[in-house]
Amino acid sequence: MLDSTSFAILPSNVKKQETFPHKLGAVKEVALRDQMLVGRTEKGHFACYFIDEETIRIMIDPAKEVTLTPSIAAEGDRLAACDEFTQNNTQAILTKGETTVVLTKDTGVFTVFKKEQERFATCGFGYNRANKHQLQIVSRAETAILGLGEKTGFLNKAGSIISMWNTDVYSPHNKDTVELYQSIPFFIADDPQAGKYGVFYDNSFRTEFDYQSYQDRYTIMAEGGAVNLYVFLGDSLKEIVAGYTRLTGKTPLPPKWSLGYHQSRYSYTSEQEVERIAKTFKEKGIPLDCIFMDIHYMDDFRVFTFNPDTFAGGPALVKALKEQNIDVVPIVDPGVKKDVDYSVYQEGIKNRYFCEKLEGDVYYGEVWPGESAFPDFFQPEVQNWWGDLHQFYTDLGIRGIWNDMNEPSVFNESKTMDLDVVHRQPGRQITHKEGHNLYGLYMSKATFEGLKRLNENERPFSLTRAGYAGVQRYSAVWTGDNRSHWEHMEMSLPMIMNLGLSGVAFTGADVGGFSSECSKEMLIRWTQVGAFLPYFRNHCVQDSIYQEPWAFGAEAEAITKKFIELRYQFLPYLYTLFAEAAETGLPVVRPLYMEYEEERHFLNVSDQFMLGSSVMVAPILRPGQKERLVYLPKGEWYHFTTKERFVGTGEAIIVKAELDDMPIFVKAGTILPLGTKVMNSKEAQKLCLEVYLGTDDKTCGKVYLDDGHSYDYQKGASLTVQFEAIQQGTQLNVHSSAQGDKNWLPDIAEIHAYGAKIDEIIRMGD
Ligand code: GLC
Questions:
Q1: Under CATH, what is the fold of the domain 671-765?
Q2: Residue 16: which pLDDT band, with cuts at 50, 70 and 90?
Q3: Whether 404 is catalytic
Q4: Domains of the chain: which residue ranges?
């Protein structure tokens, strides 16, 4: 409490700078062992190897020989043979292709060269008696920093100090909120002279990245463990993200229904209310794919139960909604109520499935159900047990689960478990200091794999609040308890873009804002932007004003409906981007800079984004605004609403947008695969091709199709159609060539062309 008054800045409250007096010392021994550079210094140990020519792993352990076993995040870690190892009195050199790693013997510094140009270099390492260490890395004042997962502030993190400790933050998120729900210790350093590289600091203890205190370097501090660093040397952001997701995994192709519009509230408090919400969507003709059940559906917040008073007919409701093509996603938190008569608690106790203190007592903490125990998801048996418990839901036809409070959040001073709680991994026990940031990731894994086992041949949808690097393999991520603040709508954009650069393609923020009160204009503007972000859910807190599309009268209803419909219109394009993300690891929503790296000033564009490579969105983010500055990258663009053609110079222009419009631009030369009107993603949708003619002959596009929910696509039941439009006078020939299972050949309902006077459109090919 006192912290929120000026007491916090009492003269004696000056933060002491942490020091790292113990150094590694000079290299004493180095050799090539099993294709790896290994050795020791006066006080520590190190190892280094290639994963491929562009990816290098470096480990330094001041306490013991380095541990080579990769973490759960680095599933793609495979040692690759080097081409050469040499050493002399001053250096040890490891080479693969055009990449060279040099270890300088008297300093223990690692330098990485690509094509003989220095790309990455450490410049110091120290540790202290508290088991903390600090690694220093060379940089320049102009080096931009991108990534770092779910962080507040603008896109470029240069000049900030950012730390990683999964934290449930209900108070308003702002620039100084350096720890949120996710910890993804991966960033891209972009130096205008030396080039770019990515760093994944795979250490799950609390870490701190300081890009502020020095001009010539930045530092990475970890509160335990060893340096476990992966360096990615791609030449572009896309290559670096591709490298990072080869290591930590890609966002799998989600079921199509998870890309539709989702409606939620903490909470719809009875089955009648859920029913009424679904009915209202239907009556008003607003598309809907999913309704959420927040904690009130449970019996006194016991997970895997229904409230016998307010949700006695829950199972029948889920089935009935399913028949109307509406999925229901229930919340499942990790806290299991301490209740001797509750079977989940009994099983957990009987089998020692809950987290325990080092001395062997079960750890209890307070969350929604009161005193609760927490599954130790680090044990494979616990993952299986927890996953299988979801049969309670899957038997009803449920295909998606929402994991919350899994930082884990506990209602106490530290906001989480005691640090002397232990987690048991096969052959290894770690304390919560090391396990904390991994807890949400392991829970997501248990949930995703459980759903996959139980719903045969059905792609699961899991949504998580907490996670660590690699979380994209299991779950979509929403950015937690934002507020109905215009600033939060704006901040969600760089947050989502940096999550995308950190491998997590499937992300979104609560549309309308979670806490505080939404307004008519805010709901309109937020629905507009939400419709173009990867995950699209409207959600808000108890006691706040309702914010369903109809909550603010007829005008707001009409406009939000229009944009929800637009989401469904864009679904074929969006789904194609997700299919690409599953292959390449590249994000669906990207900073402009990722597509136009030659425009360095785009590093500061945090309030516009690219949806794939062809669509650029510039939302209205302030009340009363009917126009805004839009940076238009070089080349030609079409305004999506007016179809007016613009010539981009890389500089900003002013674009108007009345309340019922949002600036969206389509790159000239694009064939946009849009879809016909549907009420949800399960209805058959025909294609409407929009041909935005380019200046040269090339106008093309593509669409990916499959059944939208099963894994049959992995056995070939999918189709990709490439389109190309060639203009001959006033005639337009649209060629298509399909690759894959022809059963999925799309029905093309309409083709429209923009940018020239076209009298006749002729379709050719598949
Ligand atoms: C947390 C979640 C929020 C949810 C609430 C109740 O605050 O972040 O989305 O509605 O818990 O379950």
A1: Immunoglobulin-like (2.60.40)
A2: confident
A3: yes
A4: 19-248, 589-667, 671-765
Q: Does 481 participate in catalysis according to the annotation? A: yes
Give yes or no for residue 281 CB within 6 A of ligand 1.
Answer: no
pLDDT tens across 531-553, in order?
A: 999 999 999 999 999 999 999 99
Taking each helix axis from N to C terminus, what angle separates 571-584 and 237-248, rounded to the nearest 10 degrees? Answer: 70
465 lines ligand 1 (CB under 6 A): yes
The domain defined by 589-667 carries CATH number 2.60.40.1180: yes
| Tens-place pLDDT, residues 301-326 | 999 999 999 999 999 999 999 999 99
Judged against a pLDDT cut of 90, whether residue 2 lies above it is answered with no
Instruction: State the burial class of residue 161 (Cβ atoms within 10 Å of its Cβ: 0-12, 13-18, 19+).
Output: middle
| Residue 481 beta carbon below 6 angstroms from any ligand 1 atom | yes
Does ligand 1 come within 6 angstroms of the Cβ of 331? yes
Q: Which two tokens stand for residue 90?
A: 């001053």
Does the global pTM surpass 0.85? yes
Q: Do domains 19-248 and 589-667 have the same CATH topology?
A: yes
107-121 tens-digit pLDDT = 999 999 999 999 999
Residue range 603-635, pLDDT digits in tens = 999 999 999 999 999 999 999 999 999 999 999
Mean pLDDT of 178-185: 97
Ligand 1 centre distance from Cα of residue 485 (Å): 17
CA distance 341 to 126: 52
Which of the listed CATH numbers 3.40.50.150, 2.60.40.1760, 3.40.640.10, 3.40.190.10 matches domain 19-248?
2.60.40.1760
Place of tokens 């028949």: 323
Contacts 24+ apart (CB under 8 A), 162-165: 162/208, 162/209, 162/211, 163/206, 163/207, 163/208, 163/209, 164/206, 164/207, 164/208, 164/209, 164/437, 165/206, 165/436, 165/437
Q: Which of 268, 463, 481 to mutate to test the pocket of ligand 1 (most atoms within 8 A of CB)?
A: 481
pLDDT of residue 157: 98
Q: Is the CB of 266 under 6 A from ligand 1?
A: yes
Per-residue pLDDT tens over the stretch 330-344: 999 999 999 999 999
Which position among 168, 208, 407, 434 bears the catalytic label? Answer: 407
